[in-house]
Amino acid sequence: METVIVLLMASTFLASMFGTFTGFGISTILIPIFILFFPPPVTLLMVGIIHWFNNVWRLTLFRKGLVYKLILYFGVPGVLLSYTGARLTVEIPHDILTRAIGVVIIFYVIFIHIREDFEVRTSRKNALLGGGMYGFSSGLSGIGGEIRSMFLLAYKLPKPVYIATTGAISLTIDTTRIITYLHGGARLDTILLYGAVPLIFATFVGAYIGKNLLKKVPKEKFRPMVGIFLFLIALKMIIYP
User: Fold this and answer.
1) pLDDT-based confidence at 228, cuts 50/70/90?
2) Computed from CA positions of residues 18, 22, 43, 239, in that sequence, does the dihedral angle turn out positive or negative?
3) What is the pTM of this model?
């Protein structure tokens, strides 16, 4: 188990770093990795906790310029539907849930390759819709960052403001789903609880380095490679859950 924790720590660091400067959600990268070692409820809870702290670091590093109106529009429906999605994870059999997460990742990877041609109109209705879709997907599969980005990018926020605002929205959604997972019976054993500490530290180091890379490295070099990795892992999850 110690070897697994070291592997997950390295994966968490890389996911946090790449996620910060490429726009990929850290959960999108970590869910397929963690689910190779743990059942879906444990994976969703563990990655949810890591993602929660990653959003805290993002708010700390990019704390200026929060757009509170967008946080409200996305957060309210997001919280309600995040609870609904998280409740379903308790009722769905593990193999079906694993396959469902794999399908979500496949659609995610396909979408990121066509998103440049798609633009959402900015409106309160679309913000509420985006928040609800993001919350439900996050609660059910732990993945939803690209849905949130699809709606938020239409507002053309400055990069630091965008990162801070997405961090605040994600924090509210993560808090809801983590509480729901725990209420539904998901638990971490003792070694995972201790292992969470270095994993959380890895998210901070990764986010800090990712912030510095934001101005130096074009994200286009990394997104295709990460996309291919996610696609292959998702196929494994669908065929061999």
Assistant:
1) confident
2) negative
3) 0.80
